[in-house]
Amino acid sequence: MPKTSLEIQIKTLPHQPGVYQYFDVDEKLIYVGKAKDLKKRVSSYFTKHHDYGKTRVLVKNIASVKHIVVETENDALLLENNLIKKYQPKYNVMLKDDKSYPWICVKNERFPRVFPTRRVIKDGSEYFGPYTSMKTVKTLLGLIKGLYQLRTCNYDLSEVKIEAGKYKVCLEYHLGNCKGACEGYETEEEYHANIVAIREILKGNFKDSLQQFRVQMRQYAEVMQFEDAQKIKEKLEILENYQAKSTIVNPKISNVDVFSIVSDETYAYINFLQLSYGSIIRSHTLELKKKLQESDKELLEIAITEIRQRFNSNSKEIFVPFKVDLGEDIKVSIPKLGDKKGLVDLSERNAKYYRMDKLKQIKIVDPDRHANRIMAQMKADLRLSEEPRHIECFDNSNIQGTNPVAACVVFKNGKPSKKDYRHFNIKTVEGPDDFASMEEVVYRRYKRLLDEDEPLPQLIIIDGGKGQLSSALKSLDILGLRGKIAIIGIAKRLEELFYPDDPIPLYLDKKSETLKIIQQLRNEAHRFGIEHHRNRRSKGALKTELENITGVGEQTIIDLMKQFKTVKRIANAKLDELEAVVGVSRASKVYNYYHKE
Predict the structure, then answer these.
(1) DSSP H helical segments within 91-247, as ranges?
(2) Which one of 106, 298, 418, 567 is at 20 to 30 Å from 160 when CA atoms are compared?
(3) Residue 343's pLDDT is what?
(4) Three-class SS of residue 272?
(5) DSSP-assigned letter for residue 322
(6) CA distance 594 to 597
């Protein structure tokens, strides 16, 4: 058979680093990827089985492949990132915060102004940032304004115009916020010295400004100018206070970027900490939406490239929790202990808090998305063939073999569905036999659902270990439901999850949402079962106590309980109190029963 155009394109790909692009039959770009070896990477899409459904769909839709060869893998990362942002292909990771960030501009002019902006213009001006919030920008500009007297007007302060006396000082000069450069009261050299200091502060270097102010303060004090010395001291306190607010790490750790990742089935959250002169000067978290079940390594590589490009980071070293491929120009470190490891842990905490906040917001604004995410996570964690939208959990309750009962609680879309809860009184089992009780209850529950043509759950959870799970499986076998409904057992002690025919239990992360929902189901089943068990014991105790009295029937007992509430109060009641409720004859029988002596 003649080879198709696509097969020929794949065969002729080079063994070089580069970027590949997949197009559909309409010549629409649907996916962009990078590779160390283009031929090996692209061929892998067509030669191996893909477990993830979306990847299989992507491969079916590929009609043609184009590629761009680059010098290094780092170039491939940058090119891939730019192409994804430009064309936003259907199957690529989605960047969730593509917005304009604020910058601080030091204007390219004779007496430079310092102001916030969201537009970067290539006119020779210096731009510091971008910053992740305008609040940070305002705080920094407030700090600078308190330290240095800069002009705020937008006049053209050329030497010719100042000498011609074209401008007059404004209110800012009289308030002491500006030194009056517009009338020649401040020289260009004096003003420029302040701009140099401001640049260092914006880079995160406070050391030079602190040293400069200390020298000035001593000079004023030596010549008895104590008011001026006090003003400089106040500026020192402002600067030191601001520096204390930024997280001081270790002066030896400078010009380093720190990255970490936290992900679930559908989203990944990548935190970025930027260090300069021993301080954390920036923290930002990027949210990525998964499209093809990308690994944390792939997502972190995408995010690092995007974030460094967005925030103009030129740091030669990065700290990450695991190995990533970013080319030869960047040193990748994986800290194991000390301050460096502490930074990676701090970054991960920031990513986790960001994710928690997002999930809380989603739960309120878009509960369906929250439920969909939980279901997808449970399907993956528990290795199920479908999402467990309908879960039922069983628990037995008996104390010393008396009044054996069982409870079935139902969760739908990860939430309790209390109208579907059911109690069971054990009918065929004598004594405290949890295994036989579980077998009876599971059989009765699903026999009824089948008889009434009610929907069956996608997952059954048995509160107990291998024994209870085996008992439940016997009932499913009898009903012909084995293999049609997923079933697991949870052992209380170590939160072990047991599967049919698998001797090795599954252990979930103690903090995982899947385990939390299973624990919630188990606890709810236990609570519901205990409540029913107590009610039966109470009724049994009441019946035994009062029905032992000769001549006292059911209606008399009901009348007494309505009035006195408990058997103890009936036993302690006076004869006339009893007579007022049930008459002289029956009152004397009850009174005499409790006062025989």
Answers:
(1) 134-147, 159-163, 171-174, 188-203, 207-222, 226-245
(2) 106
(3) 85
(4) strand
(5) S
(6) 9
Residue 12 tokens, joined: 């002729």
CA dihedral 177, 182, 185, 188 (to 10 degrees): 100
Q: Is 280 left (phi over 0), alpha (psi -120 to 50) or beta?
A: beta
Q: How many residues does the chain have?
A: 597
What pLDDT is stored for residue 391 in this prediction? 93
List the one residue out of 8, 241, 29 whose CA is nearest residue 142: 241
Rounded (to 5) percent helix, strand, coil in the chain: 45, 20, 35
- Give tens-digit pLDDT for 206-254: 777 777 778 878 888 888 888 878 877 877 776 666 655 555 556 677 7
DSSP 158: -
Q: pLDDT for 161-194, tens place per residue?
A: 888 888 888 888 888 888 888 888 888 888 888 8
The string over 204-214, giving b where at least 16 C-beta atoms fall within 10 Å of a residue's C-beta and e elsewhere, is bbbeebeebbe
Q: What is the DSSP string of 399-442?
A: ETTEEEEEEEEEEETTEE-GGG-EEEE--S--SS-HHHHHHHHH
CA 287/CA 263 separation, integer angstroms = 10
